[in-house]
Amino acid sequence: MRRSLLSAVVMFAALAISACSSTQDVLEPSAIAPTSTVDSAFPAQSETATTQPAPAASAMLPPAVAAKTRLRFDPIVGATVEAATPLTERLATSARVRGMKLAGSADPSATHVLKGYFSTLTEGGETTVIYVWDVYDLSGNRLHRINGQQKAPSIGGDGWAGVPPATMQAIADVTVEQLAVWLATRTG
């Protein structure tokens, strides 16, 4: 009974996240810290925020795809600033390692826009982060969706307070990996 209740809650949360179009409780990645260059939508990665080493470049974009792809990450919905900081820093690092170019929020040269929706579920000393990333073109047409969940032992309470930075960094690595694979296999 308890497992079916948990499954129902997780499915409801995933549906709610996928239907989310509100900008309430939005985290603008550039609000974490000022950007150092026009090319970056994220702050430079700091040594204190890193709890895992940077990812290996396992899914490099082919040079022809990399040359014409510029990514913009839109505000993150649902996560706290404390939880989203390691996520946004790792997204930028992982994307660059894989040969992706990043565009700032006002950069008209962006070719793809990613918008993330996040939620947590804490049960039995474990927190599950549920995430959905929608990939849009500049006209607002959804082209692709990346979603999943990441479980980790709770470190400081329920909800976002229990999510360790390493969990958010792992989500960033998986997201960029899946995005790189999708971009590399797209035609046209």
Question: Short description, anyone?
Answer:
This protein has four helices and seven strands. It is α/β, with parallel strands linked by helices and 188 residues long.
How do the strands and helices of this protein lay out in sequence?
Elements: H1 2-19, E1 26-27, H2 63-68, E2 70-73, E3 76-77, H3 81-97, E4 101-102, E5 112-123, E6 126-136, E7 142-153, H4 165-185
Parallel strand pairs: 2-4, 2-5
Antiparallel strand pairs: 1-3, 5-6, 6-7
Helix pairs in contact: 3-4
Report on this model:
- This protein is of the alpha/beta class.
- It is 33% helix and 24% strand.
- It has four helices and seven strands; from the N terminus they run αβαββαββββα.
- The protein has a five-stranded mixed beta sheet, with helices on both faces. Strands 1-3 form a two-stranded antiparallel sheet.
Number of strands: 7
List the quaternary state of the chains.
single chain
* Range of strand content: 15-25%
Topology order in helix (H) and strand (E) letters: HEHEEHEEEEH
Could you tell me the radius of gyration in angstroms?
16 Å
Structural class: alpha/beta
Low-confidence stretches: 4-51
Q: Determine the number of helices (DSSP H or I, runs of at least 4 residues).
A: 4
Mean pLDDT: 75
Distance between the ends: 48 Å
Biggest sheet record: 5 strands, mixed
Strand order of the largest sheet: 4-2-5-6-7
Shape: elongated
Helix content: 25-40%
